[in-house]
Fold each of these.
Amino acid sequence: MMYLTHEMSRLALTPARMLASGHSKILRHPLNPWSRVPGTRSIASALNVFGDLTRRYPKPSFNLDTTVCDGETVLVNETIVKRKPFCQLKHFQRNVDRPDDPKLLIVAPLSGHYASLLKGTVETMLPGHDVYITDWRDASMVPISEGNFGLDDYIDYVIDFINHIGPDTHVLAVCQPVVPVLAATALMAQDNHPSAPRSLALMSGPVDGRVDPTEPCELAKKHKLSWFKRNLIHTVPAPYPGTMRKVYPGFLQLTGFINMNFDRHLDAYRGLFRSIRDDDAEEVTRHREFYDEYLAVMDLPDAYYLETIERVFQEFHLARGCFKHRGRLVDPSAIEKTALMTIEGEKDDISSPGQTRAAHKLCTNIPDDRRAHHLQPGVGHYGTFNGRRWRDEIAPKLQKFIRSA
């Protein structure tokens, strides 16, 4: 009922949002004499902010039409090279002949936001790499006839995508996927798979959530799995294609994200109000570019979400050496030929420093000269893969690592 109530509430707000938008335009119109009355601009600005807070945010596009290779601007064509029910493999094909550039698969998190959250990551890596990314689908858009999707399926998808790209692929896992991607790499090593990754970079994820537990880690341990199933799993209503599918709704995940930094988001919208009132177009654009991405969320399949809570955040299977994939024990020590790099942010409040670095203790047979760790000072979770510090300080080290591998 919660999902249906949420949808009905959004529909009920539609007329008010449309009315607010119309009034805002009228109040700000230069031919309207009231537009010059003190306080009118503030009212119009408040109506604009109301519209931003109540509208739907669709799946964002990457909009990476060009990149620069060796000082030359080249076209980039986004293509879907493999489609699966819950994910599609996207390729950013550059219109340039650079056969020596490393093939890079970026595994985006399936944790509420779309893969386009990593637009800055892709944009930075494009000039020197042949980039692919996992573009996960909103579970509400997947018909129930396609079956369910769990953590083992996630690992299968990763192996399938790496195999599709082929040998000598480098893999970057950002946030949530560090555990299933490390497991997939270990399984490929155990099988002596010819397409096992040339290098693996794990960024800001919970390889071992027992290390300096953050608020999300504490929440997972605080409640039994039955509590998550009872309170956070809901049924997709009509008319979505995934009607009757059990999911962890994106709007609940977004609520959790916002509550972790509520004051910061409140200040951001106060700033938006002032920027609209003062006609600061640059600040308005900057705010909306970020929140158009941040507020666009997707639903997660219930099996995948609950299994991740149980196996990764409550029982720490991989860190404890008892992680299994379809009944088979996953052995990270089997990884010998894949180079390993871990990246963390000093101020990360989602995956604290040490949680990702724990991968090195599991991958005991990787030579020391084929492993690296980087702790980035002064950045939080988002700053490890987007923004100035990512572009200027983290990415160059990652690029050098990939080339050396």
Amino acid sequence: MLLKTFGWSFAITALGLVAAVFYGGWTAFGIVAILAVLEISLSFDNAVVNAGILKKMSAFWQKIFLTVGVLIAVFGMRLVFPVVIVAVTAKMGPLQAVDLALNDKDRYQQLVTDAHPAIAAFGGMFLLMIFLDFIFEDRDIQWLRWIERPLAKLGKVDMLAVCISLVVLLITSFTFAAHAHQHGGAHADKAQTVLIAGIAGLITYMVVGGLSGYFEDRLEEAEEREHEEEEEAARSGKQRSAVVLAGQAAFFMFLYLEVLDASFSFDGVIGAFAITNDIVLMALGLGIGAMYVRSLTVYLVRQGTLDDYVYLEHGAHYAIGALAIILMVTIRYEINEVITGLVGVILIAWSFWSSVRRNRALAAAGEGTGDKAEVSSGV
């Protein structure tokens, strides 16, 4: 099971490290290994959240996520995305940006760093909406009940998550604008860019998440109708309709996963520049890490880990919320990537330990008093 799920990750690791040695010797080998560990540590919460979505999808779409999805993640986000950012912000052609990345690495790094406010605003708003929509939903199982119960009641107010996100974006952009004004207006134009990028992140979440939810709801309705009218569902026409609907739902959930992964990868791509500004080594190291995150996602689904440790998904969403805030803060202040990674790891470890305690309480109480144990085991 372990080899089947992580087999491709092991193979990509071996190929990536060998390629690094041929490209830049043992120094390059060490840099790629460090980048891979960095990506895995920063994106573990991504795997947990992805698993919550992926478990709703068929084995076919899980395979698509591991194959086509990883190509998008590795080549799209870790290789093409930084080049596109440089091309857009520096107003140059893609080929010029590639030439810059290969031949003038210091200038390339500077241009990507200059684009960080826009990247952070887009990713921060997208991740913040994921966290707020999760925390405002009324759930049967709650982890930090003293927070989640009152917020679930507040969540009944329509569009509250959108309003809060816009307020956070406005505060961030105004703070950035005030800082630019105090320092001679050198970054005054970027304050507007932050605002536009943040709104774009919000719109992206609402469009992709909305379409995913819409088709998922329609799929559930179709399955209910099939269950109630089994004989009707046996007709070939209705079966074809259900299959098409399932494909639509799975496609938009896959699209949602890719945008989610892109938002998670922002901090990894930016953080990688603290280690190297070589785009080839960056793509190799972050690509290896991205492959492990994807394999881990599938492993969590197939092992039923989220069902066994029910607070893991909560911890991952709190880590998302923390990452969203950190991204927004980094528009104005510099935060070390170690802190970003540790926050996520601590929250997920805490939620895992809470899940273990809950399971022990349920086991000790027995099936007859399971509900009572569930109430008493919340944090």
Amino acid sequence: MSLRLATFNVENLLTRFDFTGFRNQLRQDRVIKLFQVSSEGVYQQLEQARVIAATDDTRQMTALAIADADADILCLQEIDNMAALQAFEYGYLFRMVGNGYRQKYLVEGNDSRGIDVAVLMREETRDGQKIELREVRSHAMTTYRDLDLFDEELALTNRIDDKIFKRDCLELDLLIGGRPFSLYVVHFKSMGNPRDELDGRQSTMPIRRAEARAVRRIIEDSFGAGHTGKKSFAICGDMNDYQERVDVIGRRGAGYRFEHHDEAESALDVFSHDGFAENVVRRRPALDRWTLYHARGPQEQWLCQLDYLWLSPALAAHNAGRLPEIIRSGQPYRTIFPPGQEVERYPRTGWDRPKASDHCPVVMTLDLP
């Protein structure tokens, strides 16, 4: 019996328009900056036309990436609401690809932009095993005080009664062909602006570290501390942090070289330092683990993994030797691939946009013990 499990940050699957760019230039789309727009009403009309025109190509590519992942259970990030998820699933996954998802789960979380985590599930796995939901739980309301996770680092930017998860930790208690399986879907705090001589990653790391500790505590409270290793669980999502990266050195026209190095610290060390869970993407070659290309000019460009399938020790051991897949055909042409990793992009993919997402779906076929 096998289960295909995937995670994918689809980026801004929204059902609303953002008109704040008329008054806040930092929020204004780059194409509208090319034109002089003096009326807010005209700006709103242009913004609506721009978004609608661009969205169809974008969502076709998003659907193609999901179709290539071909997951039985799909964990998603950056979903506006259930209406957006239903419209996308029916209009793109089902109508365009021909294979949709009947089971959909989303609980409104804490993100100030209103983007949430969600789960799509088939009624059966590809080999006919029933997928049953026993219980779904949101941990969006859990505070630092609740789990006794508040510390001096967090006190610089947070209060003790603030919510831990900046989106949510969505917990699903499942039966797959009658076998128990627990799923935890997250989207950790994004890397913010530099603060106190720390870069954006370092300045926000205490929040992500607390989120990782909270996920671990939730799992340990469920199964019992010291007893989690023999259980079947997975932690999936965009964790906005990495334990290693590949620096891309060079510029277009002159060529590139790629240098891999490990990070001195990461919020994700909470999962890995004592074998609590395994990041199975690390089974792939060092230059072939990335799920996102980051670039701010030729002096700051790298490939890194932000999207994860963390498996419990028992589940990882039961699937020893298996490799996860990373779907990169929806990446824009500006993404720099190491030699030998080039893929055929989806039709109408642009230099920067349209694209499926800046993130790549990660998927793995698992046997449950």
Amino acid sequence: MSDMQYTYLGNTGLEVSRFCLGCMNFGSGADWMMNDRDASLELLDHALDAGINFLDTANAYSRGESEEIVGEAIADRDRDELAIATKVYFPMGDGPNKSGLSRKHILDQARASLDRLGTDYIDLYQIHRWDDHVPIEETLSALDHLVDEGLVRYVGASTMSAYQFTKALYTADVENLERFACMQPEYNAVDRHEEANLLPVCEGEDIGVIPWSPLAGGFLTGKYERDSSIPAGTRAETDKYTSNRFSDENWDVLDEIRDIAEKKDATPAQVSLAWLLHKPVVDAPIVGPRSIEHLDENLAALDIDLTPDDIERIEAPKTPRWPAPGKD
């Protein structure tokens, strides 16, 4: 197993592992989730033992079950070493005030997340999406309050337009409110639309970047084949978002990745993750393995060195543009 590497998140002093463990798989629900609490805890323990100190979950993941599992996993760990991230926005029940980014919902859900995580504070509290119905001043004020109360250390955001993110940063500066320190965008070798949207803002403002879906929902693992039927039990079988990635140019990217992987005695997943790790704007890709074997495979990407020619080959078939075709 590779020795873990660490970096600072954006321009903060928060030290995080170069891989963040995504915890959406922990809980019950869809077939692609682990649906096994004991196995989830075993995987979390293995990740923590391997040096991963950065865990990302959300209140909406299995309606809080993921946070509960994370809380159980970290209960006997050195809390000071860990960076625990969670998110707020999506519905947590039926009826009014159960979703969004109102002051009420944010404050209510922050305390609920703290209870489920079994901790006194959240290291990184992120808005899961932009809320068109709530003034950004209200959202930022609520987040600022949580920081002032010592319940949150840093605040972050995920998945929005560059205009929205820039507006939030400007508003925080003008109103003297807590500024977003981190952005969580979709970013991988076949989903590169953020190179024409959020990533230039993050680079210019020294914002931490922790990409979600670094393996494109499994597409970049190489488990799918061009012109073949989708294997039963895989995510693409039931998730149209994943199957929509099966375009000619994406297959061309994967062909290059497979060839590079073969020459380096690596796997397509490892080369794909190494491509992200070679991006200066990226701090910690969020990996979401469903087994210890997959996690160990992911961690081995830390040892893979890509040449400029390798990177050029991977990037050549795609032209980043916003909005991305087929993305809502």
